[in-house]
């Protein structure tokens, strides 16, 4: 098995708070792994440490078998940050934002025919072809999310890391994204997803890793949703106190 992500004994402190307290997370080539856990359990921090946005205070990260410090091949990695807007304050069209995701592949030369086709293909995949020339400022929250996903797909990444890609996306669009992701997996992509609910992605998930208070408490088959959490359309974030058992909606 060929590890694409290896996080070993990862520790991170934000402010004065220990947020990752010795996490092991390995994602092998071609696997689809869901990172689950209550609000504040450290999921975003874990994925941000994988791409070098959060420095580790202990432990190590490797990407494609290389220590993060020596990893330079960012065109192989697509990242969708936790819900944010695709707009940077500078007016940009959907196409321009998605094309920015191709820069790591096109090495800042003029875009080739293949670059343009990849950008168009990514926009098509997320169902925004008719909005390609619109300003991202004119999009809804869920459409922004789809632009960010298209931006990550534009470089044809071998590894896709997505932080709650379904947040705020309606069921119909979730189905579109599930189909998009299935196509990526079929072409051999490796995927790490932070999720609250597996929803339409459930059939794609090979393994689930559950965090609690910065520690890994489960690494294995995805837990089955039961009760109201299994209902289609169930999509809410649970308020969690530190002493409450984890109820991700998947474990109960
Ligand atoms: N920049 C920061 N400075 C200080 N503490 C932070 C910072 N970012 C996150 N934290 C804290 O780290 C903990 C983990 O945050 P993180 O965003 O990784 O959780 P999460 O599991 O992704 O949560 P959610 O499901 O709400 O997105 C939280 O307690 C949070 O308050």
Q: What would you say this structure looks like, in words?
A:
By secondary structure, the chain is α/β, with parallel strands linked by helices. It has a single domain (3-230), classed as Rossmann fold. The protein is 24% helix and 25% strand. It has six helices and ten strands; from the N terminus they run E-E-E-H-E-E-E-H-H-H-H-E-H-E-E-E. The chain has a six-stranded mixed sheet, sandwiched between helices. The chain has a four-stranded antiparallel sheet with strand order 2-1-4-5, with helices on one face. Helix 2 (94-100) packs parallel to helix 5 (141-153). The relative contact order is 0.19. Bound molecules: adenosine-5'-triphosphate. The site of adenosine-5'-triphosphate (ATP) has 13 residues, from strand 2 and helix 1.
Order of strands in the sheet with the most strands? Answer: 6-7-8-3-9-10
Question: How much is the average pLDDT?
Answer: 84
CATH superfamily: P-loop containing nucleotide triphosphate hydrolases
CATH architecture: 3-Layer(aba) Sandwich
User: What gyration radius follows from the Cα positions, in whole Å?
Assistant: 18 Å
Task: State the distance separating the first and last CA atoms.
Answer: 31 Å
Structure annotation, total helices: 6
Number of domains: 1
Structural class designation: alpha/beta
* SSE series: EEEHEEEHHHHEHEEE
Principal-axis shape equals globular
Provide tags for this entry:
252 residues; four-stranded antiparallel beta sheet; 6 helices; 10 strands; alpha/beta; single chain; six-stranded mixed beta sheet; Rossmann fold; binds adenosine-5'-triphosphate
């Amino acid at each position: 098995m060929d590890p694409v992500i290896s996080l070993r004994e990862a520790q991170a402190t934000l402010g004065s708070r220990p947020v990752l307290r010795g996490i092991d997370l390995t994602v092998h080539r071609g696997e689809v792994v869901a990172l689950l856990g209550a609000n504040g359990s450290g999921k975003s921090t874990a994925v941000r440490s994988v791409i070098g946005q959060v420095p580790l205070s202990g432990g190590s990260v490797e990407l494609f078998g290389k220590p993060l410090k020596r990893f330079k091949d960012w065109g192989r990695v697509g990242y969708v940050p936790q819900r944010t807007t695709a707009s940077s304050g500078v007016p940009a069209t959907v196409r321009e934002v998605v094309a920015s995701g191709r820069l790591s592949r096109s090495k800042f030369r003029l875009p080739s025919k293949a670059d343009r086709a990849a950008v168009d293909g990514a926009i098509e995949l997320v169902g925004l072809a008719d909005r390609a020339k619109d300003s991202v400022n004119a999009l809804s929250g869920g459409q922004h999310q789809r632009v960010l996903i298209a931006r990550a797909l534009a470089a044809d990444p071998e590894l896709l890391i997505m932080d709650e890609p379904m947040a705020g996306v309606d069921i119909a669009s979730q189905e579109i994204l599930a189909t998009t992701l299935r196509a990526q997996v079929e072409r051999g992509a490796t995927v790490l997803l932070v999720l609250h609910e597996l929803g339409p992605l459930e059939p794609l998930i090979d393994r689930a890793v559950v965090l609690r208070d910065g520690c890994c408490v489960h690494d294995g088959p995805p837990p089955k949703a039961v009760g109201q959490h299994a209902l289609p359309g169930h999509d809410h974030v649970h308020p969690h106190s530190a002493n409450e058992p984890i109820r991700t909606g998947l474990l109960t």
